[in-house]
């Protein structure tokens, strides 16, 4: 299986761009083959950030780490996670990780690179919804404002109503006691917010049918770890 994994990864490398920024350009300039209309896969702001910092981001990627995946893991990425253009996979696993890192941190390139390095070295990974969507036109990532939190809560309720599974990355939420500039107050931290999400999940019970799969995650270096 190790040989099989190396073969499929090598085949992907032969059929994709090495440059991360060039791959992002391909996905951003994607056109729908039926309508002929532009159907960019990458969000406008993320695209501009990547192009502006292309040299630095390109130089950070270590493609040999794609070979760290076993056959099953790589085929799962290829089938469900790596972005496609006209039905053809154009991302490499390392491209996906950098896309996710920039999608999360945006203009904070230092943090994006730190996140990429940690994911690339397999210290942690993000939940599937983040890997699917970060950096795209529908990133499904929420901020730590009241508006952002409750917009996300509504999305979770709607998804849950339709018997969907939910994964929420909460690493952007301020830790207990953090200063809130907009109100000149301090944050109550992540735990009260998670209680609201949990109560909503219990209330929207999918008609008493299928048990929901709900997951909230925070990165290991989030301040909540110090709180507990």
From TrEMBL:
GO terms for cellular component: ribonucleoside-diphosphate reductase complex. It comes from the Eukaryota. GO terms for molecular function: ATP binding; ribonucleoside-diphosphate reductase activity, thioredoxin disulfide as acceptor. InterPro entries: RNR_lg_C, RNR_lsu_N, RNR_R1-su_N, Rrm1. Its EC number is 1.17.4.1. One of its GO terms (biological process) is deoxyribonucleotide biosynthetic process. It catalyses: a 2'-deoxyribonucleoside 5'-diphosphate + [thioredoxin]-disulfide + H2O = a ribonucleoside 5'-diphosphate + [thioredoxin]-dithiol. Belongs to the ribonucleoside diphosphate reductase large chain family. This is Ribonucleoside-diphosphate reductase.
């Amino acid at each position: 299986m190790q040989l099989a994994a190396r073969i499929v990864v090598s085949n992907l490398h032969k059929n994709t761009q090495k440059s991360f920024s060039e791959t992002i350009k391909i996905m951003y300039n994607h056109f729908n083959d039926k309508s002929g209309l532009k159907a960019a896969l990458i969000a406008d702001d993320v695209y501009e950030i990547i192009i502006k910092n292309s040299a630095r981001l390109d130089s950070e990627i270590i493609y040999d780490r794609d070979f760290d995946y076993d056959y099953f893991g790589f085929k799962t990425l290829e089938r469900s996670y790596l972005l496609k253009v006209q039905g053809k996979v154009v991302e490499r696993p390392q491209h996906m990780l950098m896309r996710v890192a920039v999608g999360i941190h945006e203009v904070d390139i230092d943090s994006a690179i730190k996140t990429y390095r940690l994911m690339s070295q397999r210290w942690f990974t993000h939940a599937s919804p983040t890997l699917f969507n970060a950096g795209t036109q529908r990133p499904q990532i929420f901020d730590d404002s009241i508006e952002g939190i409750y917009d996300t809560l509504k999305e979770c309720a709607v998804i849950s109503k339709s018997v969907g599974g939910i994964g929420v990355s909460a690493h952007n939420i301020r830790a207990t006691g953090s200063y809130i500039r907009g109100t000149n107050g301090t944050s109550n931290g992540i735990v009260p917010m998670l209680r609201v999400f949990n109560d909503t999940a219990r209330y929207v019970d999918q008609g008493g049918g299928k048990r929901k799969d709900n997951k909230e995650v925070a990165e290991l270096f989030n301040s909540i770890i110090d709180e507990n």
